[in-house]
Specification:
heterodimer; A: 113 residues; mainly beta; 11 strands; 0% helix; B: mainly beta; five-stranded antiparallel beta sheet; globular
Chain lengths: 113, 110
């Protein structure tokens, strides 16, 4: 158990819909990272937040957005969903930044029908 | 900018050794190694922070050659539990984006 929690574990929805994925980092960790893992794309970095502020952006679509709240939990919002958005979404947390280990949550499996 | 790993896949018998390589076209700030079992989250193995650094625990170790912009993961006397997909990940010298490598599938058979 990494100490990082993600909800929900599974999500099935239809194209065009909007969903919110939630991540609670380990106690004391200020950084949250979001990743998407699909069969053909591997693990892709989406976005990082540090202490409530966006720190780095990766291959995140404009239809996707994220935020980190004062209690440090983070949410990833996916809108206008397409079939290709079906994937495993992981969040990870670390104490601060590039020098530290990222601990991964169990992931949310999203299926868009 | 995604690091390239080699080999893509490897099959070992228990007790054999393996080396997984991770190469980048950009200068690396740090290299992280993870193992992922199917359908599960990546599990941290080790982090290397500066060129030439070598780390290890148990029978898994790694090195980081900053000049060559590459890292290698060494697995010795492999066990069945080593099976999974190994990913390197890296922060570049520029920026805070994290890039996972292409992955190496490792299967250990009795």
């Amino acid at each position: 158990d990494s100490g990082v929690t993600q909800t929900p574990k599974h999500l099935i929805t239809a194209t065009g819909q909007r969903v919110t994925l939630r991540c609670s980092p380990r106690s004391g960790d200020l950084s949250v990272y979001w990743y998407q893992q699909s069969l053909d794309q591997g693990l892709q970095f989406l976005i990082q937040y540090y202490n409530g502020e966006e720190r780095a952006k990766g291959n995140i679509l404009e239809r996707f957005s994220a935020q980190q709240f004062p209690d440090l939990h983070s949410e990833l919002n996916l809108s206008s969903l397409e079939l290709g958005d079906s994937a495993l979404y992981f969040c990870a947390s670390s104490v601060a930044g590039r020098d530290e280990t990222q601990y991964f949550g169990p992931g949310t499996r999203l299926l868009v029908l | 900018q995604q690091p390239v790993q080699s080999p893509q896949a490897v099959i070992l018998r228990e007790g054999e050794d393996a080396v997984i390589n991770c190469s980048s076209s950009k200068a690396l700030y740090s290299v992280h190694w993870y193992r992922q079992k199917h359908g599960e989250a990546p599990v941290f193995l080790m982090i290397l922070l500066k060129g030439g650094e070598q780390k290890g625990h148990d029978k898994i170790s790694a090195s980081f050659n900053e000049k060559k912009q590459q890292s290698s993961l060494y697995l010795t006397a492999s066990q069945l539990s080593y099976s999974g997909t190994y990913f390197c990940g890296a922060f570049l010298n520029t920026g805070n984006q994290f890039y996972f490598g292409t992955g190496t599938s490792l299967t250990v058979i009795p």
